[in-house]
Amino acid sequence: MKPSATEWVSKAEGDFATAGRELRARRSPNYDAVCFHCQQCAEKYLKAVLQENDKHIPKIHNLVELMLLCEEVDGSFEMLRADLVAMERYAVRGRYPGEVAEKEDARSAYAAVGTVRKFVRQKLGLK
Fold first, then answer.
1. SS3 (DSSP) at 48
2. How much is the pTM?
3. Looking at the domain that runs over 3-123, which CATH code has it been given?
4. What is the pLDDT of residues 55-112, one digit of tens each?
5. Per-residue 3-state assignment (H helix, E strand, C coil) for 3-47
6. How many CA atoms lie within 13 A of 38 on its CB side?
7. Where do the structural domains in the chain lie, given as residue ranges?
């Protein structure tokens, strides 16, 4: 894998680890942070695919738009749509007053990013 794509994967893995730790926190878990880091993990994995395939990486956070760009490389990325749509709102939600993620939101986001992570890692030839 290209070093630049590896950097995206490394950043994505950091978000995945942070989301998992926060989800398992016994004292004062921050479910907003879990959801945000899940969205960030998915975004960075999609950007790793674009980087690996020498595609332009737009400075956007929209997971579905990034998925559509990945589909230009491999049409099977469409199967991630439902999980990506579910996480889309976490790029902003929870970072501002008026929106609060609950434990179930965090669990759902973590499950969705787990699916995306597994799929993309396989596409990139990672274990």
1. helix
2. 0.95
3. 1.20.120.330
4. 999 999 999 999 999 999 999 999 999 999 999 988 877 677 888 999 999 999 999 9
5. HHHHHHHHHHHHHHHHHHHHHHCCCCCCHHHHHHHHHHHHHHHHH
6. 33
7. 3-123
